Amino acid sequence: MKKLRVVPEGVLVKDSKIVILDPTKEGVDGEQVEIINSGIAEKYLVPNAPTSTQISVTGREQVSALLENAVSGNSMGTLIKKPGGCGEQNMISMTLPLIAATYLDKTNQWEAVGFEKRNEALQHIKTGYNTQLTYRNTDGSFAIYPHYPSSSWLTAYVAKVFAMAHNLVAVQRTHICEAIKFLILKAQQPDGLFGEVGQVLMGQMMGGVRGSDSDASMTAFCLIAMQESRTLCAASIGSLPRSIDIAVAYLERRLPSLTNPYAVAMTSYAMANENKMNRGILYKFVSPELNHWPTPKGGIYTLEATAYALLALVKAEAFEDARPVVRWFNEQQKVGGGYGSTQATIMVYQAISEYWSSAKEPEYDLNVDISVQGKAKPEKYIFNRDNHYATRTSKIDEINQNVTVTARGSGEATVKMVSLYYALPKQKESDCQKFNLSVQLIPEKIDEDKKIYKLRIEVLYKDNERNATMSILDIGFLTGFTANTKDLDALSKGHGRTISRYEMNKVLSERGSLILYLDKVSHTRPEEIIFRVHQTMKVGVLQPAAVSVYEYYEHTHCVQFYHPERKGGQLLKLCRGDECTCAEENCSMQKKEKISNDQRTAKACESTQTSKIDFVYKMKLEVFEEELSTDIYTMRVLAVIKEGTSDVGPLNKLRTFLSYPHCRESLDLGVGKTYLIMGTSVDIHRDEEHQTSQYVLGERTWIEYWPTVAECQADEHRPTCLGMEDMVHDFGC
């Protein structure tokens, strides 16, 4: 017996809204009231698919979501241990649990996620450390792969992370200090500048270090690694103090002429570590709200720049300046606790942990009530100094409900509403700004018992200058289909390999899809990937499947859908104007065989759970219209033989019936002709725009030609006519 995992059609979407509670500043008479609603338009939702809303309230430290993810083994695949494969990627698997454990140790908050999780976190850190040593060269530097050229940036990053890990697990000092020694001997110029001596495969991992003023940000990055390793390596590296001094001098000279806020923020932190922060220059680039440092590229680069600025402020003990920055970070957090990239996340949490372990705590006593429509009593939460890091969560099994949040007292809290729903498949042009992606399903062997297709994927990186670095193809399968593993093995092995590796991943993908890792995606000619897919199980109605591509650190996926019979894998939808009805089923067919009167009456009287007839009409087709994906039949109800409760009083009124263009032939309806139509209330939908009911002509609909008065005189039609007229006058079940 095969188990089939059935998931709703469409794409699972997590939509979050964040509100900051601070009744002392934002409230009226000490009370702050906020009304939050998912606000998701019905037209984007897959009909009848499950939805839910999670409302979480966290005390002033909005960290527990990340911390729980970072130290729980089952979430390593979603937040921490993203697809691995090289020296840079491996650092991710130890970075997030490391920053989480460091934070929890500094602020004594292990109780928030469970004391037993500390050992799990330490195990992840040890694994990452030991694996990273396989990418270590004999001179102490680190490379993206064994025997590849060393990378200054990666070596500095490893030294920084190893120095943090040294306080938690057994890390040999030599592994840190020889990395620092390599930077001094091979990467630093006589004037103090640090440069890249090798290559970084995943440029995004470097964050804003590669942007304008990259000489300053690269120098600051290496200098920070040396500063954070200073206590461990000062005794073994005699030249360390001088190397730090000349790097500081270089940055002091460059600081007044820097124009990139990222470089300014990073340099400011490096200078603050030497008690030389220039607040005036740092605040030249701050936002008008004085709470973040916008960068030209925005997004994760702004987050990183702001994290470095916050570290600089904390180091300079400017806690009043730092407080609005921490609050701004609370508002930026992603679902699951991250900040969009590993670099952004590690820097933000390092900055926030430094702030909370150094800042003096103000008064904190906050009461929060959560009221939801339909619930008799509100959820009541109390936050104080003892539990200010805690998160309280409640759940609703639907979306678009008004949630009223009332806060009283002193202190801050963060309310996050996360709405989960299935959206109708659509290829958003805005999400495909970085890639061209095309997906084709090509029949190879199609017979009654076996279907084999070739899945052909072409992907091109839309950049004028560079290829995309490490990228991910997430390939969903049609229900009942599997990939040919021999084809995948051939793609991932040998000199001409197309992909670096593949795996079936049930964590990264909602539908348990195939994950392909690409070392690069060309910007000059499309990368082509072809493999066979086999149907292993027959399924009545196939839902579309999705293929998405994204760069390792970019969370915007370019998505395309595919299906054996429908262009772009469209869901079957019947639309009139902006109103659409989803109808994944087969066509109706006009009854042309000989139907006995008993058969017809028995059908009209059906009332079983699986087949129920709610309406029986005599109808005349008056108008036929074609729209993009929908045929619209406008009919007049000439007689009501059986009237349901979904459409009351339809006699002599016009009603619209919707069907697909590909069903036109099987329906074979003619304007001016009359038909007996029977169906179920499931196929009746309210048309709000026209204030009427519209019907779907689907596989549950009975359609039979009603002969004209003249035709009824002929012998072939007379029994049908008599039976139909009897139904009109004497129908009863």
Automatic annotation (TrEMBL):
Entry keyword annotation includes rRNA-binding: no
Gene Ontology CC annotations of this record: extracellular space
Major localization listed first in the record, in broad terms: secreted
A Pfam family: TED_complement
Annotated ranges, domain NTR: 587-733
Compartments where located: Secreted
Keyword tags: Disulfide bond, Secreted, Thioester bond
Domain of life: Eukaryota
Family matches, as SUPFAM superfamilies: Alpha-macroglobulin receptor domain, Terpenoid cyclases/Protein prenyltransferases, TIMP-like
UniProt xrefs under PANTHER family: COMPLEMENT C3, MACROGLOBULIN / COMPLEMENT
Protein name per UniProt: NTR domain-containing protein
